[in-house]
Design brief:
- Residues 16-54, 174-229 are annotated as: Disordered.
- This is Mei2-like C-terminal RNA recognition motif domain-containing protein.
- InterPro entries: Mei2-like_Rrm_C, RBD_domain_sf.
- Pfam families: RRM_2.
- This protein is α+β, with helices and mostly antiparallel strands.
- It folds into 2 domains: 12-181, RRM (RNA recognition motif) domain (Alpha-Beta Plaits); 188-229.
- It has 7 helices and 10 strands.
- A 6-stranded antiparallel β-sheet has the order 8-3-7-4-9-10, sandwiched between helices. Strands 1-2 form a two-stranded antiparallel ribbon.
- A hairpin with a 4-residue loop joins strand 5 (91-92) and strand 6 (97-98).
- The longest helix is centred in the C-terminal third of the chain and has 25 residues, at 190-214.
- Mean pLDDT is 76; it is low at 1-12, 16-47 and 224-229.
Length: 229
């Protein structure tokens, strides 16, 4: 049978190209708000160092497939509680286990660097104890950098429908003291928001045109500036 990591139906497409060849660099000064919440630029992963950039979002690889979100949070909180504000452990919906990697956003670049030293190239049995594993953990910068960018990307992702039905799989966001807070509800993509607004305005304009015609008046101009025919 296929393992969790091999199953083609996994939900990890949300940041799928992290496992491929590209990544992003967060912009802004280390520790600044623009760093942890700003957008990023794409660069070749072959040229990207694990450290030395202004990163805040890490991709942690080689997590045992049976490791749970709670187990991961417990290990992070042992030495990094209050230093990260977003965590997502993608799940293979068919096999109901994680796909082997997680995304974690840290509040500052310094905390990201601390995480890198604690987890990168460390045997999983040491940094993620609880399950027998021969793997070695690997930390790389995530393709999507920053708290807001990661939260918004998930809120507009198709995987949210499945995640909402399984709260234990949901991504997590945290307060500055390390306590979890509710993850924001899903939101439609910007294009869908615009199309809904256009449809609503179109219905309103057509309604005004019908009323004007019934009253014997000239139809008002539509939102596009043209009169309804």
């Amino acid at each position: 049978p296929l393992s969790c990591a091999d199953d083609a139906r996994c939900c990890a497409d949300w940041q799928a190209s992290d496992a491929a060849e590209s990544t992003s660099v967060g912009e802004g000064a280390p520790g600044s708000d623009s760093e942890s919440r700003g957008s990023g630029r794409s660069v070749s992963k072959g040229d990207l160092p694990r450290t030395g950039g202004e990163y805040t979002t890490a991709m942690l690889r080689n997590i045992p497939n049976k490791y749970t979100r709670e187990m991961l949070v417990n290990q992070l909180d042992r030495r990094l509680k209050g230093q990260y504000d977003f965590l997502y452990l993608p799940i293979d919906f068919k096999n109901k286990c994680n796909v082997g990697y997680a995304f974690i956003n840290f509040c500052t670049n310094e905390s990201y660097e601390r995480f890198l030293k604690l987890f990168n190239s460390v045997h999983v049995s040491d940094c993620l104890p609880g399950l027998n594993s021969w793997k070695v953990a690997e930390v790389t910068p995530a393709r999507v950098q920053g708290h807001e960018a990661n939260v918004q990307r998930l809120r507009t992702s198709a995987v949210m429908a499945e995640l909402l039905e399984n709260p234990e799989w949901m991504p997590m966001v945290f307060n500055t003291d390390g306590s979890p807070r509710p993850f924001p509800p899903p939101s439609p993509p910007q294009g869908e928001q615009r199309s809904k607004k256009a449809r609503r305005e179109g219905r309103e304009d057509r309604g005004l045109a019908v009323k004007a015609k019934a009253a014997g008046r000239a139809p008002p101009p539509g939102r596009s500036g043209r009169s309804w025919q």
